[in-house]
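As a warm-up, study this chain.
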Amino acid sequence: MNKWFLAIALGCFVTCCSNLVVAQGGGGGNNNNNNNQAATGGIDIDAEGVLRTLTISDASGKIDNDRMKAAKASLNTDLQKPSQSRKVSLKKLEAAAKAAKANGEPLPDDVKYLAGLTRITNVFFYPDSEEIVIAGPAEGFYLNSQNRPVGLETGAAILQLEDLVVALRAFKPGAKPTSTISVSIDPTVEGSQRVNQVFEQMVANPNNIRGNEAVIAENVRKAMGLQNITIEGVSTKTRFAHVLTEADYRMKLIGMGLEAPPVRITNYVDHMPMVSNSALNRWYFQPKYEGVSINSDGTSMELIGNGIELVAEQDRIRGGEKVQGAKGNKAARNFAASFTKQYEALAARMPLYGELRNLVDLSVAAAFIQKAQLAEKANWNLDYFGNEQQFPTEVYAAPTQVEPVVTAIWKDGAFSTPVGGGVTIQPYAALKSEKMNRDDASKIDDKKNAI
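Now compare it with the structure written out below.
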């Protein structure tokens, strides 16, 4: 006998219905690109803090092409040249930013976009000059049609100064370290209760389902109401917080099949289990490096690997230990594994996920600077970067709620409630002594001393 099951992404419940799947993404609309136009997505947060999608269509690619040409004409030749290890001094970066403000000038692009860095692979300390330096691959850059800075050669997301400053403040010299930087999008208790009431009415009238899918979806959306966004570890009014929120939200849309990613990812909806276990499958982004190495005196570091992964809750790491959460199912794990496997390709096509990985790199680098007491060794107190009045980063509307979007899909069998979770960055977990590798071959020092 056929059953019907209705599920809510970000909800906490599952109810028998008649082969109807109601899949809800956290906010925004269906961004599937069905007209072959080059649609690009983003986030729009209104004055009330409600997060919605923002889609910009650049079908011909003209916006990107024009901006690339303008960037090549304006950037100096040194910045345009790709580099495997471009070095940026944090003290000199601060001095340049401070000088620009004193002169009443805007931040130079090479300062604002960290000389075109696309990743942080190293943190170096130079005791003789008292310099703290971040280094990594870099290239020329331009603002694409989404107004995201990306590389001229690879299209990779470019690191941004304001994100670096937010990370440094989270791990300020001499302060208590920030244990976790995270975002979570969750339904309200009242919303969950109202949706359960809708489900009960459907169970009482199962013959009214077929043909009324759109009405049911709208009833569920209204019943759910706005969902809460919780951000910890950084100010909610920063770009840093916006990227965390957008990355989490759009991951859920991809998992539920509500947004078609630019690369092939096995979503959750297409492979849901046929039998409901009433479990809430939660997914989390978390740091994941192949290795973290330090030099002999512990003042320089190297990050190796992709830097981030998506995991189902039972594979989540908290404080360096695996979380014993709700047992997920194979489909949830397969989506997480597919997303992680394709992350590099996804980040190349969808700069948002390159930016998310950059935030992880920045957070781990800032945590290392704090843990190794490099600011103290460099006689650097972040008098400018550490002061919100001097260098403001809290200039964005705080995302506080997500307006749910619900879609109805017919599918045989049953499945459990699919989506929850968020982004969790725990930099100190990556820097635990048992996870750090000592660079006995002095490769890090060789890179530090190379021009």
